Amino acid sequence: MSDFEEPVRVWQEVRDVGGIILAGGQSRRMGANKALLQINGQSLIDRVASVLRRIFPEVIIIGGNLGSPTPFNLPSFQDLRPGAGSVGGIYTGLCRTRFPRAFCVACDMPFLSAPLIHHLTQADPAADVVIPRTNEGVQPLHAVYSRKCIPFIRKLLEQNHFKIIDFFHHVRIREVGEKEMCRHGWKPTSFFNINTREDLTRALELAGTEGMET
Fold first, then answer.
1. For the domain bounded by 17-206, which CATH number is listed?
2. What is the pTM of this model?
3. Which of 47, 61, 97, 131 could share a disulfide with 143, CB 3.0–4.6 Å?
4. The predicted structure's pLDDT at residue 47
5. Facing residues of 43 across strands?
């Protein structure tokens, strides 16, 4: 099945979770809009959107200058707090989604694993944040957030604090470690993101041997 065909839905068990694509980065190190960079003829944001559409009943895009139409004609919203970085994008997404929880992911991760994302939504539905942890640390731009986080993120923004993890001590966190993730489709490339031209070159190499993780 082509990524651009109607996806086979696997979200029957995650009807209470939405998908949020964060596309508002400045791309300063890249010097171009990362969301529109292409791998094997498909833009980064198209690759991300094609995975999320298989899992979630709603997928929205936050930020970015993508033009019209958006990938797969997905709803798009500008940041409620411009210039607040990723934490501002998560805040906007949680305010805009119609679901009590949402999986938030950066638009520059070209090798997402649908089974892993699905597992994150199911790992602990009562947690306010479900977040992967690798040997390199947590992955806040590949995590599930509850709308209960909104007031704590809003307070960060009011104080001009833009580090995502700075509100974590106010909410219930469920970390998902590497051993657990390995049982659910995780590979080292699952969190690979593109910030520089060197990263893009590496992604093209990986795509030639591995393709998109599904």
1. 3.90.550.10
2. 0.89
3. 131
4. 95
5. 38
